[in-house]
Amino acid sequence: MQEIIYNLKNKIRFLAHNFGRIILIIFFILIFLFGVYFYNNYFSSRVLKISFFDIGQGDSVMIETPSHKKVIIDAGPSDKVLGLVDNEVNLFSKNVDLAIMSHPDQDHIAGFISLFKKYDFKKVIWNGDDDKNTAVWDEIKKYLMLSIQNETQTLQLPKMEQNQNTNSIIANCGDEINFNDGVKIYILHSDLLPYPSQGGGETQSTDSNSKSM
């Protein structure tokens, strides 16, 4: 018993005598780990990265450009997408440059509710289809009507119709999103216009999928 107490006292004396050195070693280890982390996230991955999320029904894609601008296209039917985005986004950053909602069906937009609550989106692009009368779409519209984040516009969106009181933008076919790092996104379809019907005249589709951006 005395030997155990003696050994314990020696260990305490050793720790007390070398406390400064131990703290210094821990400090340098932390600096090294943070250095590796920031290098991997900011300097070593100057490439285009596209992640396809397994969120069940619907779709969700995240794009990170070489200059680390982040784009989320659709978000699936639930908040499952939140954990998947968390795994891709820098721990110390809550900014996402752009959200793109192809159309207001629940299996494509419901996940944005949890994303809007946690992350600051600079811009939100949608197809302008406001025919949905669902609780999910009503909740999403709260974010479309409010300015999500007042920052200098970093994306070139010259031809898109933008409400001055919000950061939401209605896209049109032919619009171009230029990230100024070699990556561009082109809007190939965003059709809310009437089209010729078989019986003559014009009609407009009631299927939101046919209006998808």
Tell me what you see in this structure:
- By secondary structure, this protein is α/β, with parallel strands linked by helices.
- It has helices at residues 2-17, 19-42, 80-88, 106-109, 112-118, 135-145, and strands spanning 49-52, 61-64, 70-73, 95-101, 120-126, 161-162, 168-170, 176-178, 184-186, 195-196, 202-203.
- A hairpin with a 5-residue loop joins strand 8 and strand 9 (184-186).
- The longest helix has 24 residues, at 19-42.
- The protein is elongated and about 85 Å long.
- Mean pLDDT is 76; it is low at 147-165 and 194-198.
Structural class: alpha/beta
* Topology as a string of helices (H) and strands (E): HHEEEHEHHEHEEEEEE
Largest sheet: 7 strands, mixed
Roughly what fraction of the amino acids lie in strands? 15-25%
Q: Cα-atom Rg, whole angstroms?
A: 25 Å
Question: Which residue ranges are poorly predicted, with pLDDT under 50 across at least 5 consecutive positions?
Answer: 147-165, 194-198
Distance between the termini: 77 Å
Number of helices: 6
Mean pLDDT: 76
Shape: elongated
Number of strands: 11
Binned, the helix content reads 25-40%
Tell me the count of domains: 2
Read across the widest sheet, the strand sequence of neighbours is 1-2-3-4-5-7-6
